[in-house]
Amino acid sequence: MNADIRPIRTPAEQAILASLGGLPAGGDRLADLRRAAARSFEEHGLPHRRVEEWKYTDLRTLMREAVPLAGPAAVAQADAAARLLRGVEARRIVVANGAVVPELSDLAGLEEGLRLTTLSAALASGDEVLSRLGGILPGRYDASLALNTALAKDGVVIVVAPGAKIERPVHVAHVFAGESAAASYARSLVVVGAGASFTYAESFEGPQGLAYQANAATEFVVGDEAHLDVVRLQEDGAGAFHLATLLFDVGRQAQVHAFTLASGAAVARTSLYATLSGEGSAVGFNGASLLKDRQHNDATLFVDHQAPGCESRELFKTVLDDTSRGVFQGKIVVRQAAQKTDGRMMSRALLLGDDAEMDNKPELEIFADDVQCGHGATCGAIDDELLFYLRARGIPLTEAQSLLVQAFVGEAVETVEHDGLREALLERAEGWLKARG
Amino acid sequence: MALLEIDNLHAKIDGEHGKEILKGLSLKVNPGEVHAIMGPNGSGKSTLSYILAGKDDYEVTDGSVSLDGEDLLEMEIDERAAKGVFLAFQYPVEVPGVATMTFLRSALNAQRKKRGEEEISTPDFLRLVKDKAAGLGISQDMLRRGVNVGFSGGEKKRAEILQMAVLEPKVAILDETDSGLDIDALKVVSEGVNALRSPDRAMIVITHYQRLLNHIVPDFVHVMHKGRIVRSGGKELALELEANGYAEYQQDAA
């Protein structure tokens, strides 16, 4: 019996196939990429629990409803919807329903060494930087990325010149603005030149009551000795599907740090693929997820050590209230050439609700013989002894819980280097705890 | 009316087959008094302190405890603290990620709020902590760190006394505050405690050894054994215990 033969398409799959039908024939390398991605989706469809990487996030079952492709958002509506990280001093780009809104975006007055344009403009002008797009491959079929490749028409394209130190972060604010559920796709490309340093922030938000689908993918090409910080805040609406893919190709002696704070969407999956292709780099991929009600949040990482002497660190914290479900899948692969690799991965979950569930799946695949790798996972409730100590000093139960949860999450958020963004994220986490009451 | 009145208190470890630990303990404590409770290991001294603070690992099966005439056992843990009960822990826990200053401020303001008082202003709070910390040899760096994180045994005990100084309780229960302290640390901690003696405040000093009572001189000494107070006297009783040990009580019981 072959599990891939599945003639019955769900309504969601049928709707996606209908969207894919509009791809034109002919064209360049990107058109070929799009058609290949569309074909792979036609072949595999939405992933289900028998596909190992999606075992805990059965997208085929979770995503039942058929929604059309999102149309453009009204400027005023997009403006009103984009609330997150407004207080942070950054160059702001608003991407509504998958398209950059020029009226709301700070595209002029760029610092020396910073090039910033939209994907649609780059496509229209045949910008040569697009030769980098689709260059980082996950090495396996990823439905979320395939759909993004096939359907995304816009996003942000950033090129930081070699040696340029760009102080002011670029913040890409993704919003969904509309009255009815629809699917949006955004694709971005960030190329950081050798020795350059750059901070990239992105946020996601949308209306609470709508089962919209937001699919965003960003590729980061990090040059030798470059320094890149990525800070992400996911607060999509409570009914939304959030699918994000982050792809990194890291050169020699580079430093990359990415952090995601996620508390939104009904179902969220963030897949991160990193290829360490140059010697002696240091990467840190961290995150914190705050879940409640029936939320489902999946953080999946794949770190591929191809070059020797690299260091990778992953720390993920998940707080689960009510009947929420968290998933952490982390895989570190150390190729034969990648001697002296130092890789550590840790997932910690704090269960606040009796019926909450956390699935941890750490994996190590090591082909080199001189490496240091480790992983760990913990899962537990708030420590009663700590709670008693705080209460014995007069701190009421809910406040004591909040302080302890904040401390738990804080350890991960503190890894964010940029002061303004770190403070903003801590504030959002605090707000989540306050709303919990 | 006594400030704290414990009458015929019986308590067992929570659960169906929980062992009975307190077997009819009675004690009256008036404002300004310092009571020492001494006794061999396993006599129920720490259990008594936990029950007064409200730890829910125990079940009170008989008797009563009142604070200022109110039923203490009916109160939530944090409510007891707001009413003036303070337990200096034998083994203070480490609370990573919660800075000592944040912790102290949350505790003080929560207590004030519960008592219907206004929250303390930031400058007043900083001044208050700075003054009290200096006397106890607690550095600014310790205050910025997570509560008790990486503190030595002596630093943890000093931090407990700092919390007591900031929170100004009516009844302070010091559970084996001398354990794990060398003679210098014992002196610092005792001086801290003595500075907090006042006509409005009562203290219950729980200790296994007489040594601590050379520094914190009690008004009354009680011997606890098998969950009850078996003998009470003045400070000279502690010296007698130091000379003869607890053997006579243990034989009586056998």
TrEMBL record, chain A:
<dbReference type="InterPro" id="IPR055346">
    <property type="entry name" value="Fe-S_cluster_assembly_SufBD"/>
</dbReference>
<feature type="domain" description="SUF system FeS cluster assembly SufBD N-terminal">
    <location>
        <begin position="30"/>
        <end position="172"/>
    </location>
</feature>
<dbReference type="InterPro" id="IPR000825">
    <property type="entry name" value="SUF_FeS_clus_asmbl_SufBD_core"/>
</dbReference>
<protein>
    <submittedName>
        <fullName>Fe-S cluster assembly protein SufD</fullName>
    </submittedName>
</protein>
<dbReference type="InterPro" id="IPR037284">
    <property type="entry name" value="SUF_FeS_clus_asmbl_SufBD_sf"/>
</dbReference>
<dbReference type="InterPro" id="IPR045595">
    <property type="entry name" value="SufBD_N"/>
</dbReference>
<feature type="domain" description="SUF system FeS cluster assembly SufBD core">
    <location>
        <begin position="180"/>
        <end position="408"/>
    </location>
</feature>
<dbReference type="Pfam" id="PF01458">
    <property type="entry name" value="SUFBD_core"/>
</dbReference>
<dbReference type="Pfam" id="PF19295">
    <property type="entry name" value="SufBD_N"/>
</dbReference>
<comment type="similarity">
    <text>Belongs to the iron-sulfur cluster assembly SufBD family.</text>
</comment>
<dbReference type="InterPro" id="IPR011542">
    <property type="entry name" value="SUF_FeS_clus_asmbl_SufD"/>
</dbReference>
TrEMBL record, chain B:
<dbReference type="InterPro" id="IPR003439">
    <property type="entry name" value="ABC_transporter-like_ATP-bd"/>
</dbReference>
<dbReference type="InterPro" id="IPR010230">
    <property type="entry name" value="FeS-cluster_ATPase_SufC"/>
</dbReference>
<dbReference type="Pfam" id="PF00005">
    <property type="entry name" value="ABC_tran"/>
</dbReference>
<protein>
    <submittedName>
        <fullName>Fe-S cluster assembly ATPase SufC</fullName>
    </submittedName>
</protein>
<dbReference type="InterPro" id="IPR003593">
    <property type="entry name" value="AAA+_ATPase"/>
</dbReference>
<dbReference type="InterPro" id="IPR027417">
    <property type="entry name" value="P-loop_NTPase"/>
</dbReference>
<dbReference type="InterPro" id="IPR017871">
    <property type="entry name" value="ABC_transporter-like_CS"/>
</dbReference>
<keyword id="KW-0547">Nucleotide-binding</keyword>
<keyword id="KW-0067">ATP-binding</keyword>
<comment type="similarity">
    <text>Belongs to the ABC transporter superfamily. Ycf16 family.</text>
</comment>
<feature type="domain" description="ABC transporter">
    <location>
        <begin position="4"/>
        <end position="251"/>
    </location>
</feature>
